[in-house]
Amino acid sequence: MEAKRIIEAILFAASRPVAVEEIVKAGVRKRDVAKAMDELKKEYANSAIEIAEVGGKYVMQLRTEYADYARKFAPMELSRGMLKTLALIAYHQPIKQSELKNMIGSQVYEHVKELKSRGFVKTRKEGRTKIVETTSYFHEYFGFDKSNREKLKKMLYGKIAEEQKKG
């Protein structure tokens, strides 16, 4: 089925979850999308790669149990500074942007803007500052269990401590 291979190519090339509407715009008939997704999920069922649904969108990603093996071979998509900012947000969320600025400096404004554009964080206005917190996409992208906040905090605390030792 040609639709299945087109969708597979789209998901492979995209670095984010892709909406059905985007797949249709690429030339696949809407009625073919669901069937093709089911077939792709079956094809990848015994693979280190999976086709997952994330908030009504689809993504091709490594299964959580294989992510650590591949991580050192994957290019870093976020700078060290942005990762530190993201870790602090995830650990302290919801957090005022002004508090983040006190922790890491004025580069926080650019970091939050970039993290927001990539879908990792969301903001809302509160007085003269913004409240920043992670999105469900953040949890899915990094493979964190949203329901286990303490485990996430414990892991992030270790990462933040490592970064502080490095300077």
Judged by helices, strands and strand pairing, the structural class is: alpha+beta
Largest sheet features = 3 strands, antiparallel
CATH class label of the largest domain? Mainly Alpha
Number of helices: 9
Biggest sheet strand order reads 1-3-2
Helix content: 55-70%
Mean pLDDT: 85
Any idea what the CATH architecture of the largest domain is?
Orthogonal Bundle
List low-confidence stretches.
Answer: none
The portion of residues forming beta strands comes to 15-25%
CATH topology value of the largest domain: Arc Repressor Mutant, subunit A
Number of DSSP strand runs: 6
Distance between the termini: 53 Å
Protein described:
This protein has 167 residues and is of the alpha+beta class. It contains nine helices and six strands. The strands form two sheets. It has a three-stranded antiparallel sheet with strand order 1-3-2, sandwiched between helices. Strands 4-6-5 form a three-stranded antiparallel sheet. It is globular.
